[in-house]
Task: structure prediction
Amino acid sequence: MKYISTSAVAKVHDIKPNDLFDKFKTFGWIERSNDKWILTELGKQKGGQVRNDTKYDEYIVWPDDIIFEEVQENKTKLINATAIGKHFNITSQRINLIIAEIGWISKDIAGWKLLKLGKSVGGKQFESPISGGTYVMWPETILINKNLTSALKDVSAIEQTLTLKDSKKTDNSFREKYPAEFRTKDGHMVRSRAEVIIDNALYEYKLAHAYERKLPIEEEMYSDFFIPSENVYIEFWGMESDPKYAERKKNKIEIYKKYDFRLIELNDTDILNLDDHLPKKLLKFNIKVY
Result:
């Protein structure tokens, strides 16, 4: 765990340093003595430590991910991935991966980057003043967010399926819930021969992917395919001559644009020579396949 000065904490929370020192004094975490700030026992319980420096003499530091409800005065309380993980009994690393999969954040060079969809649910981007690493904090209401809790349930269900993959009952239950006629090379059951071709191509490109993944939005909508590592969705439009299907396609595209999702569109012409078309479309999202 890294520790940062009180001034650095103030910068992270966008508070004036003098105001933060005053607040900490009000909280009883520090006190003033002989023109010097002293860490109290309560401050130590909150994670504060005293450090010595030849330039600044003695000073107080705090964990760089410390959360202060009172600091967020007149704001929504923010919590980090560690706090979310503790609530759901999951590691912070795994929480971040799940949040990335539903399109709220993406992996950055030095941490995590907040995406447009993440901002819409109250996420805030921060940067550690010490390491320069980026991270995201969330409103406490995220703990009851429908899309997050649904994603966590999906992960739990997948794990149970993997654990019981040799169980005939589990396999039959899966088929009853998601009926389909065509099996792909990686075992997915899909709804058309065109989807078999797409799924097999993704498998041969060694791209981990999901089939018929619900989008992390309030609208009830599923994508044909989803590549979680890059937050890219794939839609195959196979019956565009049908008026009802064309209207459904139009509505889905509008939703993809509304939430700024990364979308690859495929049609019958693409399927005829998919190895020429799909790699080029993937490359637009910096996904290289061979």
